[in-house]
Design brief:
Radius of gyration: 14 Å
Strand content: over 45%
Largest sheet: 7 strands, mixed
Order of helices and strands: EEEEEEEEEEE
Structural class: mainly beta
Length: 118
């Protein structure tokens, strides 16, 4: 079993920045990738960004390219999402996701609220 603990959400004005963190823990596991999704009120959960644990390649949603940066700390099993130039439309609950290597198992964090005021 893998546990994901997110932190860093909050309230920020448009144009501001926030940094989300997600730390993974649990019994022996090997990470394939970690990423971030978000869900705004009344909308479906959507992909934001992902990073491959081996090699560090990244993929971003078009809506956040150039503003958000995903990074990882392999030693700490932690993924980060640096969010700059935030817009009111970035307001959502942000969820961390972890894919386990060679098992197909997928885990989710509890979510952290981000509110961007105009």
């Amino acid at each position: 079993q893998v546990q994901l603990v997110e932190s860093g959400g909050g309230l920020v004005q448009a144009g501001g920045s926030l940094r989300l963190s997600c730390a993974a823990s649990g019994r022996a596991f090997s990470i394939s990738a970690m990423g971030w999704f978000r869900q705004a009120p009344g909308k479906e959960r959507e992909f934001v960004a992902t990073i491959m644990w081996s090699g560090g390649s990244t993929v971003y949603a078009d809506s956040v390219k150039g503003r958000f940066t995903i990074s990882r700390d392999n030693a700490k099993n932690t993924v980060y999402l640096q969010m700059n130039s935030l817009k009111p439309e970035d307001t959502a609950v942000y969820y961390c996701n972890l894919s386990v290597r060679n098992s197909g198992a997928d885990y989710w964090g509890q979510g952290t609220q981000v509110i961007v005021s105009s």
